[in-house]
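R.M. (postdoc): so does anyone remember the format we settled on? I'll just put the structure tokens first.
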């Protein structure tokens, strides 16, 4: 088992909780190692003041590290859908968020293995030397073995997963599904980790009470009341770690919704702002077609300004020819997506619609935007989701309603979402 420098860098820079998680989990591992060494040299009476302090330090720092890891994971999941980030920085943000998720789980798994192993060995030594019954020692060993197995499973799962490759999931829809799958991967693992934290803390508190009673043959018993309070404190540490991770576990079971089907994010660099677009109807797609933007700034095709409709048709024909050369087949019934503000008069749109249908022999689609909405999370409160955009084909028929009967492009989009058919001629 190993960590790459990149993993450590991702976690250390996931501030402020990343450094806390790294330091706390490292301290827990070192404390558990010291506990095992102290147990080897402990007197026959079992637990000593040193071993009790090391037990408290081991479980306390591990609980703190687990809470910090939960916070790192929660913020990384939120960063994936940060609506305030520009589209130019989305790829970088996704890469960093996936790196933080990957590193946080790896460090938690690696820390749990030695912590549970060393603590289990120390518990077994102290319990036997204090005269505790053998079944209790076996139970302690089994529970700590569960901790080791859980840590190894977490590491193995996230060491082989494709979390760092979230940017390479293909097209927009495929990438969204990939992100959704990655968000849900931590569901079962986080639940198991939380249970192990609680069980180990409970075991530690019970063992402290048990070893303090010692064998009846041993004189001068240690202070059982002090050990009871220390055991209760250990249990409280473990319980705090379990409760602190509940929010993250809840959000893992209820991940932030991502675009589904043909929905995609609204790219404003090539068209009007999403807030000005008509409301989206039933989605037929979100990409894969030339986008013609029409607004007060003129006409653009895929972000490139054109002087007039003639130049627009020339660029569309160039795209058709490029498709024929690359795909070695003709582009039949090409699709052209119209991105226009909802309040744009139809007199500005009709000439372009007529040119696309009659001269370019293509199908027109309406680009629409879904309303902005918020969702509640248990870790970071209300999260405002970015608007999603998609296009719907404009259904044309000889007996359809004349497009000129509608005053604005938004009226056409509204009628199209209700199932209307249209025609160009009045």
């Amino acid at each position: 088992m190993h960590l790459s420098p990149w993993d450590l860098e991702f976690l250390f820079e996931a501030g402020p909780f990343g450094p806390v998680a790294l330091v706390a989990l490292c301290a827990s591992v070192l404390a558990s190692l010291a506990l095992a060494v102290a147990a080897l040299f402990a007197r026959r009476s079992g637990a000593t003041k040193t071993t009790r302090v090391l037990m408290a330090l081991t479980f306390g720092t591990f609980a703190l590290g687990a809470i910090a890891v939960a916070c790192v994971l929660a913020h990384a999941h939120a960063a994936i859908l940060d609506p305030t980030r520009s589209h130019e920085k989305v790829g970088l943000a996704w890469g960093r968020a996936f790196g933080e998720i990957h590193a946080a789980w790896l460090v938690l798994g690696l820390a749990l293995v030695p912590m549970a192993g060393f603590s289990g060995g120390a518990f077994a030594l102290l319990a036997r030397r204090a005269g505790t019954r053998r079944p209790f020692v076996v139970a302690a060993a089994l529970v700590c073995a569960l901790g080791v197995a859980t840590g190894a499973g977490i590491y193995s799962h996230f060491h082989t997963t494709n979390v760092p490759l979230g940017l390479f999931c293909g097209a927009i829809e495929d990438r969204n599904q990939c992100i959704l799958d990655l968000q849900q991967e931590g569901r079962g693992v986080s639940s198991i980790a939380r249970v192990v934290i609680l069980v180990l803390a409970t075991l530690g508190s019970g063992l402290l009470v048990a070893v303090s009673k010692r064998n009846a043959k041993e004189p001068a018993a240690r202070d059982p009341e002090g050990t009871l309070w220390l055991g209760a404190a250990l249990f409280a540490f473990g319980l705090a770690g379990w409760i602190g991770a509940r929010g993250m576990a809840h959000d893992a079971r209820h991940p932030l919704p991502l675009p589904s089907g043909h929905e995609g994010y609204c790219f404003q660099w090539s068209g009007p702002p999403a807030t000005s677009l008509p409301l989206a109807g039933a989605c037929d797609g979100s990409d894969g077609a030339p986008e013609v933007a029409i607004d007060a700034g003129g006409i653009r095709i895929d972000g490139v300004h054109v002087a007039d409709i003639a130049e627009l048709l020339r660029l569309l024909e160039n795209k058709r020819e490029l498709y024929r050369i690359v795909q070695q087949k003709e582009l039949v019934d090409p699709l052209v997506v119209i991105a226009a503000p909802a309040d744009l008069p139809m007199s500005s749109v009709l000439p372009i619609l007529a040119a696309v249908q009659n001269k370019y022999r293509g199908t027109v689609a309406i680009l629409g935007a879904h309303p902005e909405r918020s969702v509640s999370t248990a870790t970071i409160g209300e999260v405002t989701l970015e608007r999603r955009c998609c296009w719907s084909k404009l259904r044309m028929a000889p007996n359809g309603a004349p497009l000129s009967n509608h005053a604005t492009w938004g009226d056409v989009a509204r009628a199209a979402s209700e199932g209307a058919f249209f025609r160009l001629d009045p």
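R.M.: ...and that's the designed sequence above, right after the tokens. Also worth knowing: The chain has two domains: 5-253, 264-423. The first helix runs from residue 5 to 12.
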